[in-house]
Structures are given as structure tokens and as C-alpha cells.
Amino acid sequence: MEEQFEMKEWMKSIPESEFRNYVKSGHRRPLTMGKNPALVVIDVTIGFVGSKPQPLEEALKEYSSACGDAFWKDVPQYQRLIALFREKKYPVIFTRADRYNQQFAGKATKAVRQIDPNDPYFNEFPAAVSPLKEEWVLDKTKASMFFDTSLNSYLVKHQIDTVVVCGGSTSGCLRASVVDSCSHGYTTFVVEDCCFDRSYFAHCANLFDMDAKYASVLSLDELEQKMVSIDQDVPSLS
């Protein structure tokens, strides 16, 4: 019998036949939540989300790296996700661009952007989604949160077995981080309603590819259900 699956909004731009072929070939296998997860909020800073909700064309006038209102429309979801981890006392880590060291080590992408490296606001977090004083803010020079950082050492030290990621951009730093998370052996989840990208096409295509190969892409509601299994100390439903 052919496996049935819910056609989510981001899936609708992908031919349904491709989903079915991926499922038949063993891709899109759902993952099981571990016992000790950590949440990483990737690059939710003013330089990427902008200082306020506005269309992409306007946001790009403020910062050439901005993603328009793709982040702002989902702020309540981000707040709910972060609150979930904080309430359960699981680690919450925020990443941002290491703009000082990028002057020497090179930037994260080939894009040429006219951004002042001394801009005091670029790396600020919006008040609606920002780290607590005691939460780690990880500076990175490249797209992946693992590349030449101490993140893996942190996760090993705290015996983390599952990495949940949100933020952006879906096709850039988030995707690179997800691939490396899988490569380091962590069960990895992407929260589909807590990701942003300046290109909706790239957003959908990369969710599809990550879900097929490196992670389980799921909604915040689905993630909450999986995390219930940790409290109950029973295997989560896949």
C-alpha cells in the first residue's frame, strides 16, 4: 500500500510525484526525538530580519542581507518555540555573524554586500526574539554554526543528542548548519513555521531537500508532541 502523507503548504511548490518517489526510495524517514535536545536560533538579527516588518524591496534598502517580512509574520511561533525549551530547561543557543573576524577570515557567502562592519545594529537581536542574559550567543564567520566554532564541544559537554533548529536563512546558514548537524551524528529537526528566507522558492526547495536527507522537517505543533515523549520517558510517535 502506498504511504500517505500530508501535503503541507511548503510542499505545494514541489511536484507531488517527486515526494512519492522520495518516500518509496526511503527518503523522508521520520526521526525519533532523543532524550536531551537543544534549540539553536540561527541568525535572527536585525541585519537579516530587518528592524521592522516590511516588504522585501523596502527591507533591502535598509540591509542588503535582509529577508523582508518572512521572519516577522512568524514571531509568535518563534516565541512559543523558545518558551517551550526554556520552560523545560533545555539549552537555547543563538547564533550571529562574527563580523569582526569575517574581515580577516572571509564572509559566509560570495555575495558582495555594502554593509558597514561597524554598524552597531546589524548584529542586534529584535526585542521580540532575543537571548536571555545567561544564554549563549555563538559568533560564526561562515554559514554553518559548526564550522570552526566550539558548538560541537558544547553539545558533547552537555550530552545533547538532538538538535532543533530555527531561523534563517532556510537556504543558507540554516541549511548549512543542518547538514553539519547530521554529519556530526545529531538527530536533527527543522521547525518549518520558524524558518525564513528572502526567496520563498528557495525556502520550499530547501525544506524539501533537508527533510529528504538530513533532518525531519515538522511543524511546531508536531515538535511539541514529540517533546511530550521526553517527559513521559517513552518513545515518541514518528
From TrEMBL:
Which superkingdom? Bacteria
| UniProt keyword Hydrolase present | yes
**What keywords tag this UniProt record?**
Hydrolase
Coiled-coil segments on the chain, per record: none
Question: Which residues belong to any copy of the Isochorismatase-like domain?
Answer: 38-221
Q: Does the keyword Oxidoreductase apply?
A: no
Q: Which family does it belong to?
A: Belongs to the isochorismatase family.
Q: This chain belongs to which protein, by name?
A: Hydrolase
* Organism name: Paenibacillus abyssi
